[in-house]
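Hello,

Following up on my earlier ticket. Below are the two sequence lines again, exactly as submitted.
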Amino acid sequence: GQNIDQPTEMTATEGAIVQINCTYQTSGFNGLFWYQQHAGEAPTFLSYNVLDGLEEKGRFSSFLSRSKGYSYLLLKELQMKDSASYLCAVLDSNYQLIWGAGTKLIIKP
Amino acid sequence: GAVVSQHPSWVICKSGTSVKIECRSLDFQATTMFWYRQFPKQSLMLMATSNEGSKATYEQGVEKDKFLINHASLTLSTLTVTSAHPEDSSFYICSASLLALSYNEQFFGPGTRLTVL
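Thanks for your patience. The regenerated structure is below:
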């Protein structure tokens, strides 16, 4: 079956760095997405990785290792507004998005 | 660019009534639209994929006669929850994809919160 695993909840301090991991087992791979979702709102796009390596975009970076079925989202200089759920999703061979359950990130002052 | 809207943002209805939710791509033509449902503290659950001019493809366990999807144009898809019951109360989110993009990014609408009394 297809499976995406990410931690249920993480806590970090304002100004610090946090890494949210995602491992996946899917039928085929056409890329991995990270989305941010604030409570009661729809997801918003953060990043897309299809090649191995690190993609940096401001305070957020996303890493992919296809051979290991592994990705992480790195958030630097954490701000209170970064408190949200972070969803990992993989595009499988049929171009269907397989979603992880999301990681709730709690930022403390 | 790539803005998706949903209407209504929230709706409260009585059990047994039907509710229609609209999803529009405002500044692009979306060949494919997706409907998701999300229960509190859970991830997105894909309900169905709809392509303009053809019947929607429903995920396993989703009743096609209860959740009617119409994708009449390249900018509009509708989801009708028929004979709604309290267990249908959820956050319904649509998304649209630009197939021209090689990675098929989905752009999400703001969601519709449905409460069935």
